[in-house]
Amino acid sequence: MTFRHTTEPQIAAEDTNLINPAEKEVKSFSMMRKLKFIIPSLLGVMLFMMPFEHEGRLTVPIARLIDIINSFIAPYMLAVSVIVAVVPSLLTLIVSLIRPLREMDNNVVQLFNPGFIWTALRVAGAITMLLVYFKAGPEWVWSQNTGGVLLYEVAPVLLALYFVSALLLPLLTEYGLMEFVGTLVSKVFTRAFRLPGGAAIDSMASWLSATSLGVMLTTQQYRSGHYTEREAASIITSFSVVSVGFSYVVLKFIKMEHVFVPWYLSVAIAGIVCALIVPRLPPLRNLPEKYATGATRQPQTDDRGEHEGLVKWAFRRAIERADRSEPLAKQLSGGIHAATDLAITVYPAMMIVGVLGLSLIEYTGVMQVIATPLVPILELLQLPEAQAAATAIMTGFIDLLMPVILGASIESELTRFVVAGVTVNGIIFLSEVALIMMRARIGLNLWRLFSIWILRLLISLPVFTLMGNLVL
């Protein structure tokens, strides 16, 4: 007797006792394939997106998990923060000076070979970290309002975020959820955002992952010939929002975590509005529709069956993606590698860029002058403490956490709500992701990135003000 090798074997007999054992095995395997998509995807949605109430406030499980881990490791985190910034930076300097090590084809060694700019940032950041820790050198470096804020308040809460997010993110990206949702929305996505339908999956993954990981994902797709220069730049600057977990950290710094769910909904609304508008304006609109040099253009394939409904097609593509998922051990090692790369890069870069930026704010009037044109706009929106808010917001191009560090002292909840929102929605900041965007070689120089950041700021301000007035 011959059996058809399909994912859904046809069974004529209604009495399951009459089914051949081989057919039962085929049917069981088919169910296992479905569950391989459904179970991890549902778990990922629950962890990252399902709100619940804890101690009188709404939060999401991933944020609560990070809080629990941080409460256990808090006594050790000051020392760990210094080690994470200093030791890898020293190894980076050694690798950069020894050619055989630089050329070694080893993933671990290559963690310490990030290129000249990142090497310089790591070394400078490590020196800054040591100066702050030992309160050595100029006071403007280690003052409680400059380096002290970064070392004692910011650095200790980041490590758990990086590793927890990196280890759990595959639940959203590796088991078919992106394919399922991306297939359902691909036509709408193409019309709304002027991007290939397949980019819906990439864009969702970029939104849900850490900013730098989203940028790297899109850059790989660009170099493989999936996107033109304009398309890649639009995805990077529109959808590479910081992760849900880090968004919670941002809101926690500004003492607004009790409204996390409606605030993050506001982030999503503002992000979609910006993604609809900003790519249609210069400078993104003017970028060329050309593919990466040497890349073979990848055709957009449509494997939908003639009589296959949209939901069934999306479900099939999701199952096929789950079939291609990496083994769990490889996912875990990849997550640890990505989190380690992020931590040893961001910690020292955050210290050097953050200290310089906070020092400009604390000891000079430069940022207040730069923020002056923004004050009338905030006053027009009737936001209290407009000058303080404008100064905080304008530091967002330097570093993601600066606005919320400064904004924590603002008394108005509405203003803090808006400051945190436009900060996360800005996407581009010099201490980390802007350098990665420029290294991607997709036409995004410093001036264009600043122009895009300003556009996103001006578009999102009224959105967050409206949502804040509705929520608070």
How are the secondary structure elements laid out?
Elements: H1 21-49, E1 52-54, E2 57-59, H2 61-73, H3 77-97, H4 99-102, H5 107-110, H6 116-134, H7 139-142, H8 147-154, H9 158-168, H10 170-173, H11 177-193, H12 199-208, H13 211-223, H14 229-239, H15 244-253, H16 260-277, H17 310-323, H18 328-363, H19 366-371, H20 375-380, H21 386-394, H22 402-407, H23 413-425, H24 433-439, H25 446-471
Antiparallel strand pairs: 1-2
Organism: Marinobacterium rhizophilum
Pfam families: Gate
Keywords: Membrane, Transmembrane, Transmembrane helix
What distinguishing features does this structure have?
472 residues, mainly alpha, two-stranded antiparallel sheet, 25 helices, globular, disordered N terminus
| Spatial extent as radius of gyration | 24 Å
Unreliable stretches (pLDDT < 50, length at least 5) are: 1-29
Number of strands: 2
Label the overall shape. Answer: globular
Beta content comes to under 5%
The overall pLDDT average reads 83
Largest sheet: 2 strands, antiparallel
**Strands in their spatial order, largest beta sheet:** 1-2
Number of helices: 25
Give the structural class: mainly alpha
Fraction in helix? 55-70%
Q: Give the termini distance in whole angstroms.
A: 69 Å
Query: Could you spell the SSE succession in H and E letters?
Result: HEEHHHHHHHHHHHHHHHHHHHHHHHH
InterPro entries: Gate_dom
Transmembrane segments: 35-52, 72-95, 116-134, 154-172, 232-251, 263-281, 342-366, 386-410, 417-438, 450-471
Domain Nucleoside transporter/FeoB GTPase Gate: 158-254
Protein name: YjiH family protein
